[in-house]
Amino acid sequence: MDEYIDILDEQGNYTGKVLLKSEAHAKGLFHPTIHVWLYTADGKILLQKRSEKKDTFPGHWDVSVAGHVGAGEKPLVSAIRETREELGLHIPEKDLKKIGICKSLKKHGPHITDKEFHHIYISPLRVPVDQLKLQETEVDEIKLMDPEEFLKVLKSPSSPDLYVFQTADYYTLVFSELKKRTGKS
What is one process in the GO biological process aspect for this record (predicted)? Predict the structure, then answer.
């Protein structure tokens, strides 16, 4: 779905420009996104398998929830909205903890260059996975995974075809914060 998004400069500052997401991707302009990592009391993380219909990373396993911040929208509001849309989960603001912002650059071909600043949140998953309602146009499947297993899988030769990759700094930030809350790495 195309939507209006704010355009950022190379440092992540708002420029005052607003474009359609498709235009920002075509021109390779920075814009804000959200990532929400949901975790269980026993330290597992929820992963989503992106829809095969997606323009970027179709059918790849990814963060629990990811999405673009709408024009004029605050990242926290976007995190709550995207979680509700993608998983049917109404997550209270108090459960979302922002742990940082990571810059990301990914080229997906001649017409899509993702230049994003990911606003990263973590939150406990307080409902059983089978109660989540997946947005068919965005998410094909979900699963719980142990973080250590997830990090091992990322090192496997077949991982680029199965998972969306982030930088080592990104994963260090996420998994160190999750370890503080669950005691599991």
Answer: isopentenyl diphosphate biosynthetic process
CATH number of the domain that 138 lies in? 3.90.79.10
Q: What is the pLDDT of residues 38-73, one digit of tens each?
A: 999 999 999 999 999 998 889 999 999 999 999 999
Pairing of strands 113-124, 30-39: parallel
Q: With residue 86 as reference, give the H or E element that holds it.
A: helix 75-87
Q: Which of 76, 77, 81, 45 is nearest to 63 (CA)?
A: 45
Range of the domain at 125: 4-182
As for how many domains the chain has, the answer is 1
- 17: CB partners within 8 A, 6+ apart: 6, 7
Sign of torsion, CA 122 124 125 127? negative
Q: Residues 33, 39, 43, CA angle at the centre, nearest 5°?
A: 140
pLDDT digits (tens, 9 = 90+) for 90-114: 999 999 999 999 999 998 877 888 9
The C-alpha angle with vertex 39 and arms to 121 and 53, in degrees rounded to 5, equals 75
Looking at residue 78, its amino acid is S
Looking at per-residue pLDDT, the higher value among 36 and 179 belongs to 36
